[in-house]
């Protein structure tokens, strides 16, 4: 995705965040670890849209991050405002694959993209769990809205 329009179409859930001075490192750009925090914020916003965190409290089944990756396209610096997007791009037997993106308002460009493999876990037994039909429907509806 190269344009703001493509970014908006790719991500049904987006959060707007300020780049903080403390996000930067000694090399005067945002430290690589912060990108994963930004992704986490968007991922949790996506989960909130699915009511996944609420249902997790009821049935003790919830998401864990099994794998994650980031491609750094452009450095972010303070000051800036970013939009971090999240979407589900694949369903798997015990979870799904998410895609993330970070759009810089200052640069008017996508500065990074990434992914995260989510596995559903029964926190009482420690076993992987298949997503139920209601969750898959909610994901489908949310993805269709973008």
UniProtKB/TrEMBL annotation:
Q: What is this protein called?
A: Thioesterase
Residues making up the signal peptide according to the UniProt record: none
Q: Name one GO molecular function term.
A: fatty acyl-CoA hydrolase activity
